[in-house]
Amino acid sequence: MATGIKDKVAILGMGCSKFGERWDASPEDLMVEAYTEALKDAGILPEQIDAAWFSTHMDDVGTGRGGTPMAIALRLPNIGVTRVENFCAGGTEAVRAAVYAVAAGACDIALALGVEKLKDTGYGGLPVATVGTYIPQWYPNAVAPANFAQLASAYRAKHGVAPELLKRAIAHVSVKSHANGAKNPKAHFRQAVTEEQVLKAPIIAEPLGLYDCAGVSDGAAAVIVTRPEIARALGKRGLVTFKALQVAVSNGWEMHSNEWDGSYVHTARIAAKRAYSEAGISKPREEISLTEVHDCFSITELVTMEDLQLSDEGGAVRDVLDGVFDAEGAIPCQIDGGLKCFGHPIGASGIRMLYELYLQLQGRAGARQLPDPRIGLTHNLGGQPSQNVCTVSIVGLE
Amino acid sequence: MSVGIVGYGAYIPRLRLSRKAVVEANAWFAPQSSRGKGTRSMINWDEDSITMAVAAARDCLGAMDRSAVRSVLLASGTLPFAERLNAGVVAGALDLDESAAAFDLTGSQTAGLSGFAQAAALATGSAGPVLLAAADARRTRAASSSELDYGDGAAAFLLGKDRPIAEILAQASITVDFVDHFRLAGEDIDYHWEERWVRDEGIGKIMPRAVAQALGQAGVEAARVDRFIFPSTFAKVDAVLAKKCGISPEAVVANLSDKVGDTGVAHGLLLLAQVLETAAPGQVIVLAQFGSGARVLVLRVTGHIRSFKPRLGVSVWLERGVIENSYVRFLVYKDQLQVERGMRGEQDKKTALTTAYRHRRAILGLVAGRCSVTGQVHYPPSRYSYTRGAPALDTQEPYPLAERLGTVLSWSAEFLSFHLSPPHQYGQIDFDGGGRILMDFTDVAQGDIATGTRVEMVFRVKDTDEVRGFKRYFWKATPVVGQPAAPERT
């Protein structure tokens, strides 16, 4: 019987580039930034890395296909480099591969790196992705904000929430993330915003305004993982280990049957449940110190609090407005600014989430350091609420 | 039993362009202050003659078993494709049996009546009824009088032997190369000769001959004609012609120029569809049309007239108009003016024809797959059915969704993607009886959609591939206004 990965794999080192509109940097430069920091943090030489996984999403701009872009940029010593792509959850998918390789004993030390170069498109927002030859013949030419905005319409209908109240709650989500991002030197957006600014911003996709949408950023993040005993042998103490890493992928039930009500993310609930089980967490609200969730849009973060069982069903509006997920709240969310303000270079985001948990758990988060966090959770979602890839990882101090 | 009309329907696009808006916009260049009255119908950005023909055909066919239809004819002067059978697209959208024959007819304003004659001939030798659709969405030059005169619309007729609501008494035609207007292949816009010549030398001399010939064949005296239809953009020419033919002035049917304009090839049939809505048994109707000669149709309404109603009919489509005051919108939808699309509008819309063919019933006909074990409806159809915990293989049977109503589960209206009627609105639709599709909404204004809104399906242009010159079509959801145009199919 499968025993999971709990405490079988430790983080040896991590790195993360500055996120933002990196007009100065190519994808290769971004990879070098993240990798060099991770290598230094791990205190190892490139030759000690046994295998690598590489996450990048967009084929049409930026980095390119296959494992070679990373192998060449980092001049890796001819090790296996595998590109993984799982929409916006690709970063965590790369981590999963590296973690599994180490947990399986196939590798001693493995590297996962994610990168995205989005600001070479010439316009704001995500590039339009290709989706094969059939889907474009019937499916709307949909964009991410409207896919996620639909959560709001269904959530309002299901829970009887007035549009104004939900709008105010999701505004609070963004106000909080901006306040957090302001303290993060690597974040894309570093200015605080007021609730009034958020409410009055131009509408992108009803009811989401400009500040309800995450930034589209360039960036890279990297993690080097190994078995705890190797980490200790290399002199590491206060190890951050993986407690769980779960992925759930839609099989079309949400989009093709009439059963899903559109107000939550089905796969997030499944991945969370599996992750809590793998990590041995029975009371997430008490046991989770902080979360880094996939706040591509403010409404996503709000419903995710319910999907992760951190709020009761229908209770996230109240919890958000009560500040439960603020920096000073019971379970801070996006203490680094999140996708909203740290930024969202797609292939890197899952690893960026992990980077913040790693710093926080090790007490290295600078001005935004939380007091004594023990367990952190990442929630990295790719696709759209009705059809997606959802990952939940849990890490903690040994 | 002889062939007659067994069903009829129509379609007038929702948008009605204010002529005042046109006249005011063009006043600096071409003062036409006396012409600024009423409206003309105009297509939405995602409509053309094919989509309008489908809408009229659905209005005509209602809930009848479409597998009975043996042929479909499409008459139009604005067929979207020069090569690709346009009527074949209509047949696919109507999910007709593939054994039905399909024909395109074009080339003259009389193409609708030519189609009628051919449909009648086909129906005579067919086991089932024959469908005729006529549609036009003509382009005009800015500040021209045609721009104010024309309208967009469609009509459809079903011809057969079973309980005709109107019998065909006579059909007459005169073919003569009288060129009142022309449009060379590949050109967009009609070129017209002087109105006085067309009126006096053309209509005034050719039409009376044709009408007399038809009435003679029918054995009906002109004075006995109850309804006389002669579509023309020339004021009062219908009344003058009626008088010349000996037809009573009361019989002359108003030509909808105040609200719709002249819908070209479709217009005579559109007016006939309107007349039939209120026709009484025994009435004689004459439909005459001018173009490269003349065509005349003489009908007598039968006692079955009251047993048929189109889904909505001209009278309801007339009521459903929404005034459009933006002349610029009209120019853009008619491809007369290019708006800035932004980089997002550069997306390649190439259609993989192999894929389109494999999935033709799902795409053109909106046919889903219904699992014979669980009854769950899957769109698009798939080999494995969704069944909790136990996906079933190859259990799905074709299940058409186009005539079913649905309810909006979730939606948004966004301003990000390139769209010719912003905001771009789409959402998840749950169909009555099962099935769910994330669909575009069309014929909607901001604020028209909410969770729980009832919607029906309309067949529209999905994308235009401007690089290669191709259009692809799909279904969109539109809010049910009053009586649904798309009722449950039996």
When the domains of chain A are counted, the total is: 2
DSSP, total strands of chain A? 11
Rg for CA atoms of chain B: 23 Å
Structural class of chain B: alpha+beta
Task: Specify the CATH homologous superfamily of the largest domain in chain B.
Answer: Thiolase/Chalcone synthase
Backbone shape of chain A:
globular
Q: Give the termini separation of chain B.
A: 27 Å
Find the CATH topology of the largest domain in chain A: Peroxisomal Thiolase, Chain A, domain 1
* Name of the CATH superfamily of the largest domain in chain A: Thiolase/Chalcone synthase
**What is the domain total for the residues of chain B?**
3
Oligomer: heterodimer
Strand order across the biggest sheet of chain A? 1-7-4-2-3
Largest interface: A-B, 42 and 53 residues
Spans of chain A of at least 5 consecutive residues whose pLDDT stays below 50 are none
Overall description:
The complex is a heterodimer of chains A (398) and B (490). By secondary structure, chain A is an alpha/beta fold. Chain A folds into 2 domains: 10-121 and 218-233, Thiolase/Chalcone synthase (Peroxisomal Thiolase, Chain A, domain 1), CATH 3.40.47; 143-214 and 243-397, 3-Layer(aba) Sandwich (Peroxisomal Thiolase, Chain A, domain 1). Helices cover 35% and strands 18% of the residues of chain A. Chain A has helices spanning 27-42, 68-73, 90-103, 144-159, 163-181, 195-200, 228-233, 253-256, 266-279, 284-287, 298-307, 316-321, 338-341, 349-361; strands at 10-16, 51-55, 80-84, 109-116, 203-205, 208-209, 219-226, 240-249, 290-292, 375-384, 387-397. In chain A, strands 1-7-4-2-3 form a 5-stranded mixed beta sheet. In chain A, helix 2 links the parallel strand 2 and strand 3 (80-84). Chain A is globular, with a radius of gyration of 19 Å. With 490 residues, chain B is of the alpha+beta class. Chain B has 3 domains: 4-183 and 190-303 and 317-333, Thiolase/Chalcone synthase (Peroxisomal Thiolase, Chain A, domain 1, 3-Layer(aba) Sandwich), CATH 3.40.47; 367-400; 401-490, OB fold (Dihydrolipoamide Acetyltransferase, E2P), CATH 2.40.50. Chain B has 12 helices and 24 strands. The longest helix of chain B has 24 residues, at 195-218. The mean pLDDT of chain B is 96. The interface between A and B is large, with 42 and 53 residues.
